[in-house]
Amino acid sequence: MQARPETVASQRLGDVFESYALTGKGTLVVSGKAVGEKIGTGIVRVINTANELKNFRPGEVLVASSTSPDWEPVMKTAGAIVTDRGGRTCHAAIVARELGVPGVAGCEAATTGLRSGQRVTVSCASGEVGEVYDGDVPFETTRLPANALELPCTQIMVKLGNPDLAFRTAMIPNSGVGLARMEFIISEHIGVHPMALVHPEKLNREELSHIEALSRNAGSPRAFFVRTLAEGVGTIAAAFWPKPVIIRLSDFKTNEYAQLLGGGVFEPTEANPMLGFRGASRYAHPAYADGLALECEALRRVREVMGLSNSRIMVPFCRRVAEAEHVIEAMARHGLRRGVDGLEIYVMCEIPNNVIQVDAFSHVFDGFSIGSNDLTQLTLGVDRDSAIVVLTSTNVTRGCCGWRWQGRSATHRHVGICGEAPANYPEIAQYLTELGIDSISVNPSSLPRTIAVVREAEWRSQARAA
């Protein structure tokens, strides 16, 4: 095999930040909440049911009432995503951010105001309001070399879930991955409920046949899950080596898990899945014990077989300290023992009780990552997917971060934030920097703005100290 200096890919502008601005005017059709900061054009494809996804063509603008995890293989090829329902933290918005495509959520009348075959311009470059214009509206793109950005003292990390974007994202200035979501890998690359792979006796013949086809080259369904999840997580950890990569255990809700192959048998029907059987309560329950074992086995392979010790683990939605201790013990039984070979285990701070009992949680975990979306939702009693009750996290995040800092000062635990508040509200990024937060994690498209705000805040703090 021949080896020589590479002269093609290395010359591409993969390490360039892009900013967008409309230079012309058009007829506004619908508007909603902007996701990202990009502008894109394309042909509309209205999707009313999952059966219509087969008609979708790469590069089209996906328009739907809402989306779900089983749509992600198609969403990955979309030029833009527009939905009737949801806010900046709904499923469609999360996927649009990770894919780096413009998205507009909560338009209310997108599926009726837009029609398949119509050419539109989707703009998220005007702040918080995302707009969909009829036809092609002129816009310009400004490119800034990544090497022109100097990282501040505060760690500026990225959020990532798609392994396909890992190496390209790792080329831009960053301090590692503050949130690597397992859900994207499970839904797109595996597509099967973890419990269905362990308990095939509960499945019908069609489901068994499908799982057998998926896992035929892996040796067993269990090995298929472990290998595929380890490869996806390992790709992200390898791309950012030796920087830290914080991997969150799967955080599907019951309705999302039920949509995976074989999932309907294992999931209860809940009136409000956002507040139900999710996160740490799931890992600590016999109904998902075998699923947690699979996740732990995959993460253990990443650390021990692949040697990617820069990977850390994060437990989401942990309601009680006793629940946290139960999960830590279960992970230790599966070979992921806190402190062994430098393993650090964090918790997402997204429940008010995590703030109230900060000292107690500090004895169980090595660090905290503030999830401002759920923390705001549970503090204000709002629905993060509601387009009517707008989720605003500015004051809540400021208050909870300040409160949490008192506990952090005594326990010396790592504290970061991985919600969208610092990216959407520069005053939050400035406030967190002045508090001395360890890390701020944002989507790659928000890096330039966040870096600039944080550097300015650090400069002001130094000037006041002098």
Can you walk through the features of this model?
By secondary structure, the protein is an alpha/beta fold. The longest helix has 20 residues, at 221-240. Residues 6-13 have low confidence and may be disordered. 50% of the residues are buried. The chain has helices at 72-75, 91-99, 110-113, 166-170, 182-190, 194-198, 205-214, 221-240, 254-258, 280-283, 289-305, 321-333, 352-356, 358-362, 372-380, 394-411, 421-424, 426-435, 447-465, and strands at 16-22, 27-35, 39-47, 61-64, 80-83, 103-105, 119-123, 129-134, 139-145, 155-160, 177-181, 245-248, 311-315, 345-349, 367-370, 414-417, 439-442. It starts with 15 loop residues before the first strand and ends with a helix. Helices cover 38% and strands 20% of the residues. The chain is globular and about 60 Å long. α2 links the parallel β5 (80-83) and β6. It has 2 domains: 13-143, Phosphohistidine domain (Glucose Oxidase, domain 1), CATH 3.50.30; 149-465, Phosphoenolpyruvate-binding domains (TIM Barrel). α5 (182-190) crosses α8 (221-240), α8 (221-240) packs across α11 and α16 (394-411) runs parallel beside α18 (426-435).
